[in-house]
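Pipeline run #58 for the internal structure catalog. This entry was flagged by the ingest filter as a single-chain record with no existing model, so it goes straight to prediction. Upstream metadata was stripped on purpose; only the residue string is passed forward. Reviewer on rotation: M.T. Logging verbosity set to normal.
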Amino acid sequence: MPRAPKLATFPAIRGALKFYQICSVITGTMLLLLVGEMILKYTPLHLELFLGGSGGFLWFAPVVEGPEGLESTGDGINLSLGILVAHGWFYVVYLISCFRVWSLMRWNLWRLAMLAAGGIVPFLSFFMEARVAREVKHYLQEREDAELHSRAEHSSLTHAIPTENKR
């Protein structure tokens, strides 16, 4: 069984949890955009989203079958490709946030794998974010309460105060 986190790391755990929560929401949103982009491109619709160019501000350009696979026919900034690249790079940041929470909480390797899966399985990052935040906050509060209770029991001040029962 892994060792429990030290009380001195609790502020770092709270910061890592906040960073993980932000990264989780951004990664989940980017993943949903990526799934939408892939549905547009690889289903019979064969479309890609572009910014600017001959079609206007935001427009869809058809994707045609070429000698090297699907080729875009649009001009301007390819937002479909931008979504793909942005999700890929932000997934790396998300993995760093997962590793930080995982290592500070001293969880097992299976938990890290589940956290990492949140960035590649649609909607999973939203569920994992809520569950991890709830579990970590509960754990930290429980440990802090136990430590406070333990310190109060061992304090010389609490033993020196007369109570009703000691008459």
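catalog note: The chain is about 65% helix and 10% strand.
catalog note: The mean pLDDT is 92.
status: ready for reviewer M.T.
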